[in-house]
Write a structure and sequence with these properties.
This protein is an alpha+beta fold. It has five helices and 16 strands. Strands 4, 5, 6, 7, 8, 9, 10, 11 and 16 form a nine-stranded antiparallel beta sheet that branches. It has a three-stranded antiparallel beta sheet with strand order 1-2-3, with helices on one face. A two-stranded antiparallel sheet has the order 12-13. It is globular and about 45 Å long. Bound molecules: calcium ion. The site of calcium ion (CA) has 5 residues, from loops.
């Protein structure tokens, strides 16, 4: 079960025009299956009316249901699919407010200690934590203009903080999936331009424990970070794929900006959106 979004989780969320939504629902005694047209995208939302939300439908409740569904369509993660040029099948993803989630960690149930091939192809799935895969990212971001959003949850509180980039592009595997970001905004710091030594992670190759393409001449940053793959300099100021529940899953910006006194993370979500 995916975590329920909260207002605090959406801290820093940019104001967006409400998408055009048409709603349909098919309610039984305890459940409602809800269908929504959002722009040109057809999505299915599924509600279980538990004790907290249970009610008999009348006109007022119908208005409440519509409100809940609009809230869900705009603010809650939902499952959908995307098309990627050389992939013959639609790719399942979590989508949130028209963003496509490519990295999602919130409970540590998926091991991010993975090989180059696994980071290239993706792992985990949309019912829990996952990494979409570098090959899909490069194909998408070289066939259109994309922006990116990174969200962080501190282990010390329930607040989420975010960093956005107006432009996000990943080179092909032949160039080690090098990352290119620009146009930073957000309350969580410029992730790829930390002022500390090795804090510039923009323009870096992707590395894994079995493919050391980082700037550190004597060690592999991914092995230091308990084998999470990432775009490392030598090494960097954040580790979004380090071991969950350890100090190797951290973001130094949280302490630098006074958002927390411990840089360790309790969740991360990264996503892209076509401009
Ligand atoms: Ca190295």
């Amino acid at each position: 079960m995916l975590p329920v979004s909260t207002t605090s989780r959406l801290a820093g969320w940019p104001s967006q025009p409400l998408p055009f939504i048409r709603l349909f629902s098919d309610c039984g005694m305890n459940t409602c299956v809800c269908y929504a047209h959002i722009g040109l995208v057809y999505k299915i939302l599924y509600f279980v009316l538990d004790d907290r939300l249970s009610f008999k439908l009348n006109n007022n409740d119908l208005r409440l249901m519509v409100w809940l569904m609009i809230s869900a369509a705009v603010a809650l993660p939902i499952q959908t699919t995307i098309s990627v040029p050389t992939f013959s099948q639609p790719i399942p993803v979590i989508s949130l407010n028209r963003w496509i989630v490519f990295l999602y960690r919130f409970d540590g149930n998926v091991d991010f200690n993975r090989t180059w091939a696994e980071y290239r192809n993706g792992f985990g799935d949309v019912t829990g934590e996952y990494w979409l895969g570098l090959e899909k990212l490069t194909q998408m971001t070289n066939n259109g203009q994309y922006r990116a959003r990174f969200e962080f949850k501190s282990i010390q509180n329930e607040s989420w903080f975010s960093s956005e980039y107006d432009s996000f592009q990943i080179d092909p595997e032949s160039n080690w999936y090098t990352i290119h970001v620009s146009g930073f905004t957000g309350d969580a710091g410029n992730q790829f331009y930390h002022p500390n030594l090795n804090g510039i992670q923009n323009g870096m190759n992707f590395s894994t424990w079995d493919s050391d393409n980082d700037r550190h001449s004597t060690l592999n940053c991914c092995i230091m970070m308990e084998r999470g793959g990432w775009w490392y300099n030598a090494c960097g100021a954040h580790s979004m794929t380090g071991s969950f529940g350890s100090p190797k899953f951290y973001n130094k910006w949280l302490t630098d900006l006074g958002l927390a006194t411990d840089p360790e993370l309790d969740g991360v979500r990264a996503m892209i959106q076509r401009v």
